[in-house]
From TrEMBL:
GO MF term (any one): prephenate dehydrogenase (NADP+) activity
Pfam families registered for this protein in UniProt: PDH_C, PDH_N
Name of the featured protein: Prephenate dehydrogenase
Keyword set includes Amino-acid biosynthesis: yes
Gene of this entry: tyrA
Keyword flag Chloroplast: no
Domain of life from the UniProt record: Bacteria
GO BP of this protein: tyrosine biosynthetic process
Cited PROSITE patterns: PDH_ADH
Residue stretches making up the Prephenate/arogenate dehydrogenase domain: 3-293
Length: 367
């Protein structure tokens, strides 16, 4: 039976979800709310949604499923608004916020005595882009789409959500909201703090030491890439997961103190262990075994600086889809080859390694 879906917030995430829903359910009616006219117009023109409004409350009673794809604070505000609207019996309400405990507990509070099925959600894909103009039907492909059930999530809620979102081609998993916030504080929120802190420290240092800018290369780029993330989103993430993130900061301070002491004492063993342990831990980590949220499969090729060498490699890879090609800069201390090619999956990577090894005598490294 065709359903009516209401997406509030036609930004990158909301508009990409609309495209994914349309892919598998072209008969569903998708209603969209957006504050600014620009994203409403784009979403209508590109057929992502069927009808648009700037009055959030007006479409809410029509929907079988409502997805809030707004910044975290607005998600909380809109949950409160929904509680005072006469919604369809048994409506499913979900969201897309990057932190989950506050959103889930707010929904449990406001919808406690209503006929609402609420399930928190965090699609683990995105980019630095914003707005409906950046929407991409493949944004969530193979990415984790995390559901954080609440006391208002009945057994059929997740089944209906998975069916609705099947066209996203995401990997659906369920996890408790608090555990979600703990895990993401360690692998996402705290690394963002580190990246921005490191960037800030380096920028100040470079004012006195100009060469710092020039020598910064692969390792520095890898460590600071996420410092270019959208500041508003990260401010709201930190503010909605404060305790957990502060624990991570405290823990890290202890680790910094330990290595500082080892350096101060000149303790060669401890310093060696510090690096060796991390190296072994990283090698054993899942990140090497499968594509993480935004990971790619990288091949490094030590090509000589000769005419047409890159064309020759690309010719060998004809027919294989490449995600990225990069020529590493002068400082290559921490990378494994001059030419770095990224692939979408492990099969393409293996195939490329084999073809290049068989047809050239260049050193090929997978990392
Ligand atoms: P976006 O900036 O592209 O879109 C945000 C949407 O919220 C827009 O439609 C905007 O009009 C609307 N909005 C902002 N402030 C509003 C207000 N005061 N009142 C009404 N509407 C308002 O952002 P996005 O990337 O689509 O993020 C949406 C949600 O998804 C956020 O909660 C974010 O944490 C989460 N998320 C983002 C990513 C990512 O990498 N971009 C990944 C996973 C989850």
């Amino acid at each position: 039976m065709a359903k009516t879906i209401y997406i509030a917030g036609l930004g990158l995430i909301g508009a990409s979800m609309a495209l994914g829903i349309k892919r598998d359910h072209p008969d569903y009616e998708i209603l969209g709310y957006n504050r600014s006219q620009a994203s409403r117009d784009i979403a209508l023109e590109r057929g992502m949604i069927d009808r648009a409004t700037d009055d959030f409350a007006s479409f809410a009673p029509l929907a079988d499923i409502i997805i809030l794809s707004l910044p975290i604070q607005q998600t909380l505000d809109f949950i409160e608004k929904l509680a005072s609207i006469d919604l369809k019996e048994g409506v499913i309400i979900s969201d897309a916020g990057s932190t989950k405990s506050t959103i889930v507990s707010t929904a449990e509070k406001y919808f406690a005595d209503k006929s609402v099925r609420f399930v928190g959600a965090h699609p683990m894909a995105g980019s630095h882009k914003t707005g409906a103009a950046s929407a991409d039907v493949n944004l969530f492909e193979n990415a984790y789409y995390i559901f954080t059930p609440s006391s208002l999530t009945t057994s059929d809620t997740l089944e209906e959500m998975r069916d609705l979102l099947s066209g996203l081609h995401a990997r659906f998993i369920e996890i408790d909201a608090e555990e979600h916030d703990r895990v993401t504080s360690q692998i996402s929120h705290f690394p963002h703090i580190l990246a921005s802190g490191l960037m800030g420290q380096t920028a100040s240092y470079a004012e006195e030491h100009e060469m710092a800018r020039r020598f910064a290369a692969g390792g520095f780029r890898d460590m600071t890439r996420i410092a270019e993330s959208e500041p508003g989103m990260w401010t709201s993430i930190l503010l909605s997961n404060r305790e957990t993130i502060m624990e991570r900061i405290e823990d890290f301070k202890g680790r910094l103190d330990e290595i500082e002491q080892a350096i101060s004492k000149g303790d060669e063993n401890q310093i060696w262990n510090f690096f060796n342990q991390a190296r072994e831990q990283r090698q054993a980590m899942e990140i090497h075994k499968r594509g993480g949220v935004d990971s790619s499969y990288d091949l490094y090729i030590d090509v000589p600086d000769e005419e047409d060498v890159i064309l020759r490699i690309l010719e060998l890879l004809r027919g294989t889809s490449l995600v990225n090609i990069h020529i590493n800069e002068e400082n290559r201390e921490d990378v494994h080859g001059i030419l770095q090619i990224s692939f979408k999956n492990a099969q393409d990577l293996k195939r490329a390694e084999q073809v290049i090894t068989e047809n050239t005598d260049y050193t090929v490294v997978i990392k």
